[in-house]
Amino acid sequence: MTRDSAIAEVLLPLALDGPYSYRVPEGMALEPGSYVIVPLGPRQMIGVVWALKDEAGTDKTLRDVGEVFDMPPLPETHRRFIDWLSAYYLEPAGNVLRMVLRSPGAFEGPREQIAYRATESAPKRMTPQRARVLEIAREGFAMRAAELAEAAGVGTSVIKALAKDGALEAVALPALKRFPEPDLNAGGFALSKDQQAAAEALRAVVAQRQHKVMLLDGVTGSGKTEVYFEAMAAALAAGGQVLLLLPEIALTQPFLERVERRFGCEPAQWHSDLRPRERERVWRGVADGTAKIVVGARSALFLPWKKLKLIVVDEEHESAYKQDDGVPYHARDMAVLYGSIGKFPVVLSSATPSLETLVNVDRGRYGVVRLTDRHGRPELPEIGLIDMKRVTSEPGTWISPPLFDEVKTTLEQGDQALLFLNRRGYAPLTLCRACGHRLECPNCAASLVEHRFRRQLMCHHCGHLEPMPKDCPSCHTEGKMVPVGPGVERLAEEAAVRFPEARIAILSSDLSRGTLLRDAIRDVEEGQFNLVIGTQLVAKGHHFPHLTLVGVVDADLALESSDPRGGERTWALMAQVAGRAGRGAKPGRALVQTYLPEHPLMQALKKGDRDSYLNQEKAIRENAGLPPYGRLAAIIISGNDAAETERFARSLGLIAPLVDGITVLGPAAAPIAMVRGRHRFRFLIKAAREVNVQAFLRLWLKDVKPKGSLSLQVDVDPYNF
Ligand code: ADP
Ligand code: ZN
């Protein structure tokens, strides 16, 4: 631009209606996408230039843009992505922008290029706060004062005090390590004929340099990862950046090592527990295009991509791609949206694709590549059903006699068995045997779950913890509190008693996190344990070569829920967990305990007949007008006072516009009627596929302003019921 523009429309990372106008000072060169600092009230804020306007006779009251950052502007594609996402989910664009600016370090000035690290000397005085800071500082990463303070959850004054005491020393902030250039021929297997054909099909799509969604549909262990690596290599060869999205849980070391072997260098990683400096490195590397491969959780979509040319969504059916707090969005759907805006292909990979995706394939909107054989082992594990109505188990045991015998034989043969139960903790429910009182969370309408290893009761909705009471809090009878039903911890207790010789590993997110969990998974892979007990954490992505038997303790959990995707979830989970068996030299099998053996889904599972399951599921959804045949949206109204919240919800119901093809259900108490002390009511909006549900919602909510403690959250395409 030769002439300086007069006005900058700056989007701020706040829930505002749109960008705010600022005057561009003489001589300041801005372009759309520039990161700037602008005043807002008494504050200075970072924002992004959304548009520039030349306007003569400008409003004299406008304030000036303060500073502009010397970094690559946020590309147009990304800005359009933010606008689209904001319109689709009815979420202020500023809230979406906030997800992009998730690296405060990237915006620090030269003053902030000083870091602190721990010294040998102890501070004069030790407090829990100081100890936390030192513990983090001793991990060996020099960090900025603000970042160190944030990581330790203390104020920066604590850092200053420790520096004064000599327990921390100031050093120059180390330079960010550059990202190495991937070596496209570093590794990779000689692909089988089928794999080669699949890889070729994906490469051809990448070569088109257009938007196209491809489903990579292959049974577990068929080599989907190896195949999509080839698509990634093709996009990299064309000079692009690639994003490999994983459901958060799957960001494991072995997987990252596979990426590293294939591309000869460690990929950039993006997830919620990165250190600030690494966060900054990845953020900057993505912005300047030097980070070529990013393996990340859903939020990696919002990194400021310079020239993204391919997104691979692994395990595309995973519900972990749906974010429920903050901006509720679905990362798989938004990856497809990003691809359509950026005109590049998106690969969706799964052994159990979502019904949404399969119907898009049926409709010809998505292409598909199939892998039908397991690599080097043609047969998939056989799935057997155990009819729990017909077996007699000892009271208080959850492993039925037939499953017990199979596990015993497996262990005796020197093989590994897995018992799967998708329930954390010791028992989902605790009751008083004298009065029937059940222990509930004081903040949520939900039972407290006993966690015996931690010796606590825990609410799985808000994280509330309390000790297990000895006496009933209601009738005060002593010693009558009993656990009801099993969680993994209780199952492990039973297993320890009934298989005294077994080396048992429990894999649950409560018991181990981070490196501990990675180590445990590695030990299982190496066969150091022979009986593994776990939640869905173990069901996915892992490769346990010694595992030959999978026992599913309760297959009915999701089927019995009110979730319209309960059937789909059950299918996916069963197929995934069964797929852990028989990945090594020996064939594997799965035994599924169910009270519903005659259920069509269980029958289809037993026969390994995906098509019959799918046809039945499609019919159910189509009849009910549920996705992907119809559309859903939810509005959650919450507030501190139940009556007030309900009144507000009812008044909102009265002004719902009447629109053909749209049904408004509710308000009704939300499936979890109280969370964190807030009462919740819900509307469910069912719309025909061709109806613009966003326009309807906008019309309805146009003048609605919740007051006081009341709040309103729209959830387009809700997932969790
Ligand atoms: P999926 O992603 O479909 O579950 P993976 O890509 O993880 O399958 O492959 C399963 C296992 O088979 C992995 O250990 C992988 O390294 C191995 N594998 C896949 N394809 C080949 C091949 N062509 N040659 C050798 N090993 C392979
Ligand atoms: Zn709670």
TrEMBL record:
<dbReference type="Pfam" id="PF18319">
    <property type="entry name" value="Zn_ribbon_PriA"/>
</dbReference>
<dbReference type="InterPro" id="IPR005259">
    <property type="entry name" value="PriA"/>
</dbReference>
<dbReference type="GO" id="GO:0043138">
    <property type="term" value="F:3'-5' DNA helicase activity"/>
</dbReference>
<dbReference type="GO" id="GO:0006302">
    <property type="term" value="P:double-strand break repair"/>
</dbReference>
<feature type="binding site">
    <location>
        <position position="435"/>
    </location>
    <ligand>
        <name>Zn(2+) 1</name>
    </ligand>
</feature>
<dbReference type="GO" id="GO:0005524">
    <property type="term" value="F:ATP binding"/>
</dbReference>
<dbReference type="GO" id="GO:0016887">
    <property type="term" value="F:ATP hydrolysis activity"/>
</dbReference>
<dbReference type="InterPro" id="IPR041236">
    <property type="entry name" value="PriA_C"/>
</dbReference>
<keyword id="KW-0639">Primosome</keyword>
<dbReference type="InterPro" id="IPR027417">
    <property type="entry name" value="P-loop_NTPase"/>
</dbReference>
<dbReference type="InterPro" id="IPR001650">
    <property type="entry name" value="Helicase_C-like"/>
</dbReference>
<dbReference type="GO" id="GO:0006269">
    <property type="term" value="P:DNA replication, synthesis of primer"/>
</dbReference>
<dbReference type="GO" id="GO:0003677">
    <property type="term" value="F:DNA binding"/>
</dbReference>
<dbReference type="InterPro" id="IPR041222">
    <property type="entry name" value="PriA_3primeBD"/>
</dbReference>
<keyword id="KW-0238">DNA-binding</keyword>
<keyword id="KW-0235">DNA replication</keyword>
<keyword id="KW-0067">ATP-binding</keyword>
<keyword id="KW-0862">Zinc</keyword>
<dbReference type="InterPro" id="IPR014001">
    <property type="entry name" value="Helicase_ATP-bd"/>
</dbReference>
<feature type="binding site">
    <location>
        <position position="475"/>
    </location>
    <ligand>
        <name>Zn(2+) 1</name>
    </ligand>
</feature>
<feature type="binding site">
    <location>
        <position position="472"/>
    </location>
    <ligand>
        <name>Zn(2+) 1</name>
    </ligand>
</feature>
<feature type="binding site">
    <location>
        <position position="444"/>
    </location>
    <ligand>
        <name>Zn(2+) 2</name>
    </ligand>
</feature>
<feature type="binding site">
    <location>
        <position position="432"/>
    </location>
    <ligand>
        <name>Zn(2+) 1</name>
    </ligand>
</feature>
<dbReference type="InterPro" id="IPR011545">
    <property type="entry name" value="DEAD/DEAH_box_helicase_dom"/>
</dbReference>
<dbReference type="GO" id="GO:0008270">
    <property type="term" value="F:zinc ion binding"/>
</dbReference>
<protein>
    <recommendedName>
        <fullName>Replication restart protein PriA</fullName>
        <ecNumber>5.6.2.4</ecNumber>
    </recommendedName>
</protein>
<keyword id="KW-0413">Isomerase</keyword>
<feature type="binding site">
    <location>
        <position position="441"/>
    </location>
    <ligand>
        <name>Zn(2+) 2</name>
    </ligand>
</feature>
<dbReference type="Pfam" id="PF00270">
    <property type="entry name" value="DEAD"/>
</dbReference>
<dbReference type="InterPro" id="IPR040498">
    <property type="entry name" value="PriA_CRR"/>
</dbReference>
<feature type="binding site">
    <location>
        <position position="462"/>
    </location>
    <ligand>
        <name>Zn(2+) 2</name>
    </ligand>
</feature>
<keyword id="KW-0479">Metal-binding</keyword>
<dbReference type="GO" id="GO:0006270">
    <property type="term" value="P:DNA replication initiation"/>
</dbReference>
<keyword id="KW-0547">Nucleotide-binding</keyword>
<comment type="function">
    <text>Initiates the restart of stalled replication forks, which reloads the replicative helicase on sites other than the origin of replication. Recognizes and binds to abandoned replication forks and remodels them to uncover a helicase loading site. Promotes assembly of the primosome at these replication forks.</text>
</comment>
<feature type="domain" description="Helicase ATP-binding">
    <location>
        <begin position="205"/>
        <end position="371"/>
    </location>
</feature>
<dbReference type="GO" id="GO:0006310">
    <property type="term" value="P:DNA recombination"/>
</dbReference>
<feature type="binding site">
    <location>
        <position position="459"/>
    </location>
    <ligand>
        <name>Zn(2+) 2</name>
    </ligand>
</feature>
<dbReference type="InterPro" id="IPR042115">
    <property type="entry name" value="PriA_3primeBD_sf"/>
</dbReference>
<keyword id="KW-0378">Hydrolase</keyword>
<comment type="subunit">
    <text>Component of the replication restart primosome.</text>
</comment>
<keyword id="KW-0347">Helicase</keyword>
